[in-house]
Amino acid sequence: QEQLVESGGGLAQPGGSLRLSCTASGFTGGISVLTMSWYRQAPGLKREEVATHTKFGHAANYPRSVQGRFTISRDNANNTVYLLMNNLNPEATAVYFCSAITAASTYWGQGIQVTVSS
User: For residue 65, is pLDDT > 90?
Assistant: First the structure.
């Protein structure tokens, strides 16, 4: 059974950093054959795409609000995708979700809370 588990969230101060991890299991071929993404959803707002790392090895789709501060990467050997978030601001407060796109479906993790506050 396919599963995505996020970790690494929590409380950060403005200007601080967090690194989120998403570990995948149950996917045939592992994440090396998948496009992996991070999304976030703040209270009262729609879920938005934060970053995508394609199965071809390209990192893309950073919205302007996070460009230059957030970096997506992957470790195919350990079936893990990361989101490094630097210079955090309170607007980054949200639940962050990992997703994996297969030919048949899109899978989601359960989400993890990130709160940026002093």
Answer: no
Where does residue 110 rank: exposed (0-12), middle (13-18), buried (19+ CB within 10 A)?
A: exposed
Mean local confidence (pLDDT), 35-53: 95
Half-sphere exposure of 7 (CA within 13 A, CB side): 4
Cα–Cα distance for residue pair 28/47, rounded to 1 Å: 27
Q: d(Cα 84, Cα 44) in Å, to the nearest integer?
A: 24
Q: Tell me whether residue 76 is exposed, middle or buried, using C-beta atoms within 10 angstroms of its C-beta: 0 to 12, 13 to 18, 19 or more.
A: middle
What's the pLDDT at 63?
85
Strand pairing category for 35-41 and 3-7? unpaired
